[in-house]
Design a protein that fits this description.
It contains 14 helices and 19 strands. With about 475 residues, it is of the alpha/beta class. Strand 14, helix 12 and strand 15 form a beta-alpha-beta unit.
């Protein structure tokens, strides 16, 4: 799909012209007002559409009226969702050239228009023997050229992350993630098992012991002269999570290829960062492995030693992501960065609390957490702050080690956050639990089922605005 900015979308020869209408309002087209409103009582409710032919009287063959709902409830996020609905409708009609013209919108919609169109255009059909080509070739819109081009890059990063997280685990192995990182053209160091052992990453390495796949610790670095800030972003990289010896039920394993969605997000961000050229130093870190019940798998009751020397009693081998993040956090805190942000499909408890519409966030610096929440809202994502109180560590206390890797079932997202906090030192830190938002089992708003690229647009906007 190619998005072209124009001064007058209505003058473009196209298959369909999409125009907007607020509820109980009118459109900018006399033809649409006559038929949609006058004869068929079209109300313009949010997401509703009305199609009519022009019979050669206009440069466009058809007009699609897109309902935007009540004007007082309208916002950039609703606009993006509406655009996605319109693009999907045009794809159903196999239109190849589509123009968009809007009236009465009082904010710059360039970014959200572009993201809505690109999200709607996405499909993961790599493994389909028959592929249906119903994508739109050209879109014309009255919008800010520079904002559209920047949003295209963010959309490309989202697509990059979605493709990775949608890949089956047989393809998206730790080695494949490492190879992907090396192909991005930025400074990258891949640590193998022996090198991780020398660094004392006993928690991360324990998780990967039961798998035939070699664990890989990935460190990507983007640098600029005199950076305004130094940020490390960490993505949970469990390429497949069987639960280990505390094995998951079969139904819970069906989508566990997505347990590396945090890693996919980090790779997506790093894939486009050179083109966006932020004046910030960014470190992308992934501890990639599989959690499998092999003959060498770590066991309940084992005591692990993390990179910072703290000991962990294994209470449950299915609480593995926090073990890999523990060593990654220790590593990141030694880089001299100002902030560390980790993203992880970490707890079912967060999904129980917030569902599939919001990620949980917590951290040791209130300003960082609030800034990320605000950035997420402006980017089209929802982050909700969860408590990080010392009381949540009570359930993690161990009789034989410094802590256990899981506690009781109550407040599971916050107790996981308290576990991670034990491995953060002398740096501002935020933890984002994307368990509910990273992978959808059914379509939701502008997204089809599957990977969503959770966190990509928020992190990129946060980095660009730093």
């Amino acid at each position: 799909m190619e998005i072209k900015t124009v001064e007058n979308a209505k003058s473009v020869e196209s298959d369909i012209l999409v125009i907007s209408m607020f509820e109980e309002g009118k459109t900018s087209s006399d033809l649409a007002n006559q038929y949609a409103l006058g004869e068929d009582n079209f109300k313009g409710k949010f997401g509703e559409t009305y199609l009519l032919q022009t019979y050669g009287k206009e440069p466009y063959r058809k007009v699609l009226v897109l309902g935007l709902g009540k004007k007082e409830e309208f916002c950039p996020n609703k606009f993006r969702e509406a655009i996605a609905k319109a693009v999907k409708k045009c794809m159903q009609m196999e239109a190849k050239r589509v123009a968009f013209s809007f009236d009465g919108i009082d904010f710059d919609y360039s970014e959200q228009f572009t993201l809505g169109a690109l999200i709607a255009d996405y499909k993961f059909d790599k493994y389909k023997s028959e592929k249906k080509d119903n994508r739109i070739a050209e879109i014309y819109v009255q919008a800010d050229e520079s904002e559209v081009r920047k949003a295209e890059k963010i959309g490309a990063a989202m697509t990059f992350a979605r493709n990775l997280a949608n890949e089956p685990a047989e393809f998206a192995t730790p080695s494949e993630l490492a190879s992907t990182a090396q192909d991005l053209g930025i400074e990258t160091k891949i640590y193998n098992r022996e090198e991780c052992e020398k660094m004392g990453m006993g928690a991360f390495l324990a998780v990967g012991r039961g798998s035939a796949e070699e664990p890989k610790f990935i460190h990507m670095k983007y640098t600029v002269p005199n950076p305004k800030k130094r940020i490390a972003i960490i993505g949970k990289g469990i390429c497949f999570d069987s639960g280990g010896l505390d094995i998951k039920p079969a139904s819970s394993m069906a989508t566990m290829k997505d347990d590396m969605s945090g890693a996919a997000c980090v790779l997506g961000v790093m894939s486009i960062i050179r083109e966006l050229n932020p004046q910030v130093e960014v470190h992308g870190i992934i501890a990639a492995c599989e959690n499998m019940p092999g003959g060498k798998a770590y066991k309940p009751g084992d005591i692990l030693t993390a990179k910072n020397g703290k000991t962990i009693e294994v209470d449950n081998t299915d609480a593995e992501g926090r073990l890999t993040l523990a060593d990654a956090l220790c590593y990141a805190c030694e880089l001299g960065v100002d902030e560390v942000i980790d993203l992880a499909t970490l707890t079912g408890a967060c999904m129980v609390a917030l569902g599939t519409h919001a990620a949980g966030i917590m951290g040791n610096d209130e300003t960082l957490v609030k800034n990320l929440i605000d950035t997420a809202k402006r980017s089209g994502e929802n982050f909700w702050e969860l408590p990080l109180w010392e009381e949540y560590f009570e359930g993690l206390k161990s009789d034989v080690a410094d802590m256990k890797n899981s506690g009781n079932r109550w407040g599971g997202a916050s107790s996981a956050g308290m576990f991670l906090k034990q491995f953060v030192k002398d740096v501002k830190w935020a933890h984002i639990d994307i368990a509910g938002t990273a992978f959808l089992e059914k379509p939701q708003k502008e997204f089809i089922s599957g990977a969503t690229g959770a966190g990509v647009r928020t992190l990129l906007k946060y980095i660009l605005e730093a």
